[in-house]
Amino acid sequence: MDHEIVRSMAGDFDSFGADSESLVIVPRWKVGTEPPPFLSTNGSVVRLLMSIVDDTIDVMPSIVVSNAVAVQIYRLLFDKFAHAAELKAAKIADRGLYIILASLVRGTRTELPNPNAAKNLKLYLGRTVTGSQEPGLAIRFSNTIKFRRGHAELKGLSLEEARERLFIRWDSEPFGFDFGEVQSEFEVTQLLGEMRGERAESSETITRLEGMIGELEKQLKRAHSTLRKGSAQSERDREELEIELARVRAGRTCSSSPARRI
Questions:
Q1: 147: domain range?
Q2: In 132, 177, 208, 255, which residue has its Cα 20 to 30 A from 116's Cα atom?
Q3: Is the predicted pLDDT of residue 75 greater than 80, yes or no?
Q4: Is 4 part of a structural domain of the chain?
Q5: Which residues sit opposite 15 in a β-bridge?
Q6: Which of helix, strand or coil describes residue 24?
Q7: Is 238 domain-assigned?
Q8: What is the pLDDT averaged over residues 81-108?
Q9: What is the CA radius of gyration of the chain?
Q10: How many Å apart are CA 92 and CA 54, to the nearest integer?
Q11: Beta 24-25 vs 15-16: how paired, if at all?
């Protein structure tokens, strides 16, 4: 379905579930005209989010997560004026926020890889102003509404009108948190563990090879020594043979010479 017309579609259907008790309604709205419907007053949305966290949903709906959608879901969990009682009672907090948004972004249910992933996402959305850091996305949204008189498009609007107008505008902005990097970090952590194991095995192999090389070097030195000793022995034998040959030759010469007369 065209993104400009309908934000969410799952095939040609708007609901999942085999019976009325497990039925989950998939939210649909017109981007640029209507704000996303992730509100505490929308029971079907709350049930959808709970089913994602509980891992009871059969098929993950196709929902393009915008800044507006992310902020609304954050508010359902943490904003005291906009939270959904069912979600708050479930005490899913940071873990639930990560599972919901990561699952919707990825199109498949995604479990929390590590506590830091949830912490980073929570800061991305709900960080208050500290030093040179910018406030989180949800805090910026609230501040913009609070000080709407300073914004031309919101000036003169009521609180509800300003909130709806800003949600519609932010719905055209894609949610910028990179779940791929967070997941990769987790995978890299696992890979590093495997590499450390392989490195330990490699270290043992290297140590074993170094021992073998050392032993071979010793054998080579012994072989050289033996060769040198053998060469020295051969040289002495040659000298003795030459002496004996000279003696024999000398004796032969003496034997062949005529005797002198007296």
A1: 15-177
A2: 132
A3: yes
A4: no
A5: 25
A6: strand
A7: no
A8: 88
A9: 42
A10: 10
A11: antiparallel
